[in-house]
Amino acid sequence: MKKNDLIELTIDDLGTDGQGIGHAEGLAVFVGGALPGETVRAKVIALKKNYAVGKLDEVLAPSPMRACPPCRVFGKCGGCTLQHLSYAAQLQFKQSHVQGCIQRIGKLEIPVNFPLPARHEYRYRNKAAFPVRQNGGQVDIGFYAAHSHRIVDVDDCKIEPSGLKIVMSQLRVWIVKNGVPVYDEATHTGLLRHIVLRENKAGEIMLVLCINGEDIPNRSHLIMLFEFVLPQVKSIILNCNTRQTNAILGGRSICIYGKDHLFETLGGLEFKIGPQTFLQVNSSQTEALYNTLFRMLALTPADTVLDLYCGAGTISLAAARRAKRVVGIEIVEEAVEDARFNAKLNGIETAEFFAGDTAALLPAVLGREAVTAVIADPPRKGLDESVVRTLASSGVPKIGYVSCNPSTLARDLALFTELGYRADVVQPVDMFPQTTHVECVTVLSRTCA
After folding, report:
1. DSSP 3-state assignment of 266?
2. pLDDT tens, 73-123?
3. DSSP string covering 22-89, please?
4. Which of 124, 421, 422, 436 is exposed most, by the fewest CB atoms within 10 A?
5. Which of 210, 240, 404, 440 is catalytic?
C-alpha cells in the first residue's frame, strides 16, 4: 500500500472523531464519512507506521444505518461529524465509546447504560461562536474545517436555532455595507474577530461582537438594524479582545444596546446569562442531565453538598432545593458573582459561593463543612489528581461526577476505585446529537472506612 493508492476495504468500527475504521495489509485505515458494515473504496492520503488515513472515494455497499445529512457543508465543516449516521446508531456508538473508555483506560468493569436520547436531534444549541475571516473579496463566517484554521462559510447551521440564521444574514449585510475590517490573525490587524450568539428558551437573542479594538464603525446603524428589523435581539455587546490569542472572548465587554444579559429558566429556576457565562449548550437536555444526577445522588434535606466547578450556580441552586446547604467553588470570579445573583434571584439563602482554585480551596472547605455529598462537573481535562486524593481522604460518603470527556472520566474513576470508592453504573446523556461528544453521570460511594 502506497500513498495515493485506491484501496477497497470493509469498515468495522468508528473512531472517536467519527471516522470509519477498516483494515488493509495489517494497518488500521481511518476513512472519514465511512460507516461500520460498509464496503468502501478510499484513496490513501497519509501512510504512517501503525495506521493509514484514507479519503472516501465511493461507498460500494452502504450501511442500513446511513442517513442523508441535511447540512450542505457536512464533511467540510469540522463541527458535526455524525450526520450521516442514523440517530439510533449514534446513541449506540456513544454507549460503546463510553464503555470502551471505562474498560480500556480505567481497567474497570462498570456497566454503561444506553444514553438518554435528546429531545431534538437538530436545532438544539443555545449558543454559537462564529470566527470571521476575509477571503478575497468576500467575508467568510462559519466554522473551522477539521484540524485546520480554514473557515468553512456557513449560512445555516442545522444544530443552531433557526433564529440565529436570520441574525447572521443581517450581520453580513452590515459588515459589507459599513466596510467593517475583518481581523487577520497572522498580522494581528483588522477589527472583527468572532461573532457569538446566545438564545434563551423565550427566543430572545444576545449578539456579541468580539473585536480587536474598542468600538465599531457606524454602531447606530447596527443598533437600528436590530431594533426595528429583528426585535428578538435584546442585547448587543462589544467584547474587546486585543490579545494575540486563540481565545474567543476578551476580559472587557461593553453593552451598546439593551441589557448586558438574558435570563434562562432551568428546572423552574431563573438564571442570569452574560457573554462569559458557562451554560450547557442544550437547555432541554440540561434538565434531563440534572434530574439524572439528583436521582442517582439521592440527596435528602439532611445533606450538605459541595459543588466543585459550580460556574453560575445552575447545579448548586437546583441541589439547594433538595439539600440542607450547598457550597460552590468556582475559579472564575464573574461566574461566582452571577451565582450569588442567581441565588438571590431565586430566593435561595442556603447556597454559598467561593471564588478560587478548587485544589487550593478544597481542603479548607472540607475542614470546616460537614459535607455529606460532593458534585463535580469539571472541564474536559477532568479532575486534578490532588482533588481526587483530597476528596477520598475526606471520606465524603457520595460523589456525583458529571463528565463531558469519557477518557478523563475513566482515568478518574480508576483512581477513585484505588482510594476506596465504587461506581455502580455510568449513565450517558446525549447533549450533542450529530457529534461524537457525550455527557456522562455517575455516582461514587465510599466502600471502606
Report:
1. strand
2. 998 888 899 999 999 999 999 999 999 999 999 999 999 999 999 999 999
3. EEETTEEEEEET--TT-EEEEEEEEE-SSEEEEEEEEEEE--TTB-----TTBTTBSS---TTB-HHH
4. 422
5. 404
Check if the beta carbon of residue 243 is closer than 8 Å to that of residue 203: no
Give per-residue pLDDT as tens, 298-317.
Answer: 999 999 999 999 999 999 99
138-144: strand order across its sheet: 151-153, 138-144, 127-135, 192-199, 205-211, 233-240, 252-258
- Model pTM greater than 0.90? yes
Q: Grid coordinates standing for 241? A: 479582545
**Cell numbers standing for residue 41:** 473504496
Give the closest residue to 78 by CA, choosing from 139, 22, 157: 157
Q: Which three cell numbers stand for residue 264?
A: 434562562
Q: How many CB atoms lie within 10 A of CB 379?
A: 12
Q: Is the pLDDT of residue 136 over 90?
A: no
The helix (H) or strand (E) run that includes residue 359 is helix 358-368
**What string of DSSP letters covers 109-178?**
---BPPPBPPS-SSS-BSEEEEEEEEETTEEEEEEEBTTSSPEEE-S--TTS-HHHHHHHHHHHHHHHHT
pLDDT higher than threshold 70 for residue 205: yes
Residue 7 · residue 23 · CB < 8 Å: no
pLDDT over threshold 70, residue 271? yes
Cell of 205: 437573542
Q: List, in sequence order, every residue forming a beta bridge with 292; answer none if it has no partner.
A: none
Does residue 334 contact residue 400 with C-beta atoms inside 8 Å?
no
Residue with cell 475513566: 410
What residues form DSSP beta bridges with 425? Answer: none
Fill in the amino acid letter for 189.
Answer: T
Round to whole Å and give the CA distance between 265 and 267: 7
Instruction: Identify the pLDDT of residue 449.
Output: 58
Longest Cα–Cα distance in the chain: 69
C-alpha grid cell, residue 204: 430572545
Q: Are 233 and 259 in contact (CB under 8 A)?
A: no
**pLDDT at residue 184 is higher than 70:** yes
Burial of 17 (0-12, 13-18, 19+ CB in 10 A): middle
Task: Give me the percent of the chain exceeding a pLDDT of 90.
Answer: 83
- Catalytic status, residue 404: yes
Identify which of 321, 322, 339 has the alpha carbon closest to the alpha carbon of residue 330: 339
How does DSSP assign 182-236, residue by residue? Answer: BPBTTTTB-SEEEEEEEE-TT--EEEEEEESSS--TTHHHHHHIIIII-TTEEEE
Tell me the pLDDT band of 223, cut-offs 50, 70 and 90: very high
pLDDT per residue over 15-72, tens digit each?
988 899 999 988 999 999 999 999 999 999 999 988 999 999 999 999 999 999 999 9
Residue 435's pLDDT is what? 95
